[in-house]
Amino acid sequence: MIKLRDKTYKIILLIALLVFALLPYFTSGFWTRLVTSIFLYAILAQGLNIIAGFTGYAAFGNMIFFGLGGYTVGILMVKAGIPFFPSLVAAGVVGIIAAISVGMPLLRLKGHYFALASLGAAEGLRQIMDNLTGLCGGAMGLTLPQMAGKPAQVNLSFYYLIFILLLVFFAATYLISKNRVGYALKAIKANEEAADAMGINTTLYKIVAWAISGIFTAVAGGIYAYWFTFIEPATVFDVMIVVKLFVILLLGGVGTVMGPLYGAFIFEGISEIVWSRFLNLHMGILGIIVILIVFFIPNGLIDMVRRGFRVRAILDTIREEKV
User: Fold this and answer.
1) Which positions of the chain have pLDDT values less than 70?
2) 261 vs 284: CA distance, rounded Å
């Protein structure tokens, strides 16, 4: 958390909550949909933050849970006729089970070995989904039923659903960061061998971290599927989404509670501005902007705020990174 005075920070937080709670009533449908997308990416980034930011394991395979969450909701709604909310709960359960099942073997690996193994697991699952034509629609994808109501009402419903889940997940992350689980994860990130020597069950805590990450990501995947009413393996298992989430974490602040939200606003805001003004060159320009931001603010926006946005602070941070 940003080290401002507690009273001031609480006032700012309450004002922000009030603004976002009333935002759809004062903006157009475009801005409501854009902020909804930002909130969704913030949830996904927070899920990655638990395993990558707090624990120090670069989980490039986190799209496993996103895809499974989406397909769980899609299959239950289309094939079994189960309503959305029970299907969403099932998606969260599937995310936990998948994280434990995949985590038990993969989390014994470290560093780039774990990153590559998790990426390979996600790609392998994508190939399986491509061939499950009868159940998942295969490469042709799966079409979900649309939410009843006018487009404006549907957008409003998804806005508040994702906004509420954002508050719940970020509150859960804050509580985790302040209890023994969070301290154990940070100890593992700092020095896993030392944490193990101190009596911390590192394997158990790593699996718990990925399970928490799995439920965040799977629930977001389930909402994504119902919101867009169509999913396919190439989309929900796309590794570029994870790359985008890592950039969001770097921009906001890795291992911080609010960093994923700040990073999502920065990245999506820049992306929208660049895309609207430079349609044919937006990816290249966006990449250059991200490189510059990461180079000058390597520890994220929260660290920059702590240092007071001073040029000298930026140079000191860069020197620290080089050392």
Assistant:
1) 1-6, 276-283, 285-286, 289, 293-294, 297-323
2) 24
Torsion of CA 208, 213, 214, 218, to 10 degrees: 150
Q: How far apart are CA 255 and CA 78, in angstroms?
A: 38
Whether the full predicted model's pTM is greater than 0.85, yes or no, is yes
6 CB contacts (<8 Å, ≥6 apart)?
none
CA distances to 62, 173, 214, 238, 323 from 102, in Å: 11, 22, 11, 18, 36
Q: Per-residue pLDDT tens for 111-121?
A: 889 999 999 99
Orientation angle between helical segments 111-131 and 84-106, nearest 10 degrees: 130
CB atoms within 10 A of CB 146: 11
Closest CA to 28 of 155, 148, 146, 157: 155
Q: Domain segments of the chain: what residues?
A: 6-322
Burial 1-23 (b: 16+ CB within 10 A, else e): eeeeeeeeeeeeeeeeeeebeee
Backbone dihedral angles phi then psi of residue 151, each to the nearest 5 degrees: -55, -40
Q: CB under 8 Å to 235, separation ≥6 — which residues?
A: 141
Specify the residue for token string 């935002």: 23
Tell me the sheet residues that pair with 143: 230
Helices (DSSP H) in the chain: which residue ranges?
6-22, 29-48, 63-78, 84-106, 111-131, 133-136, 151-177, 180-190, 192-197, 202-228, 233-236, 239-252, 259-277, 282-296, 300-306, 311-322
Indicate the SS3 state at residue 310: coil
CB 157 within 8 A of CB 149: yes
What is the distance in angstroms between the CA of the first residue and the CA of the last residue of the chain? 26
Across the chain, which distance is largest between two alpha carbons, in Å? Answer: 60
Length of the chain: 323
Name the token pair of 267: 């990245």
